[in-house]
């Protein structure tokens, strides 16, 4: 099976700190759905930011679908991210004055590659995803700032999924959802991902989500670094 993610000899430190991550080797196969767990402060979001090319490691190689990110300029990394990665951030990063639909459309706006993968118009896809995620037609036309936190979370998911990115990175995307909505959300997210052969890396503290994923990884299993005090009892 083709490899989606491959990390080799990777270390990353924030300025003035001991290494947050020290990963000898880790790989994820294409189409796999990975649940990534770890204590608070252990470096999960840091790892995701490296995979998305937002930060770069001091040492080591990050390959995504055979592309070595270190060989790309910052601009090329931005393009690579826009084309191939859907990212659901912990804080969603929606534009507050744009409507829910307009926010979702941002997911394909900067990528011809993702536009070409749409099977219907971008707007129809956006409204279809939002409807399936439980936002009414009226809610879809509201500015993001007027939506509840749980609704914003689902808008962020639709934006990440539109245009079938090869890799979906999700950082605690269910924290604001109640149990019913969370289960529907995760099922739909994985269903849409599987339909597009999207590889999923999903960070959560919620153990109830474990059965939905085919691979479970604890950050300390792949990274030797033991950063700050919060890890002492991990
Ligand atoms: N922008 C930053 N600048 C400096 N240090 C940072 C920055 N972001 C994170 N860190 C540090 O890196 C370490 C790992 O943080 P990170 O956010 O990756 O952990 P996490 O596992 O995602 O935590 P949580 O589960 O609480 O979200 C922490 O010690 C944190 O203080």
From TrEMBL:
Q: Give the matching InterPro entries.
A: AAA+_ATPase, ABC_transporter-like_ATP-bd, ABC_transpr_LolD-like, MacB-like_ATP-bd, P-loop_NTPase
ABC transporter domain location is 5-234
GO MF term set: ATP binding; ATP hydrolysis activity; transmembrane transporter activity
Q: Which Pfam families match?
A: ABC_tran (PF00005)
Q: Which SMART domains match?
A: AAA
| UniProt entry keywords in alphabetical sequence | ATP-binding, Nucleotide-binding, Transport
Record flagged with keyword Transport = yes
According to the lineage, what is the superkingdom?
Answer: Bacteria
> Which cellular component terms (GO) are annotated to the entry?
plasma membrane
Q: Which residues form a coiled coil?
A: none
Q: What is this protein called?
A: Methionine ABC transporter ATP-binding protein
Organism (species): Idiomarina seosinensis
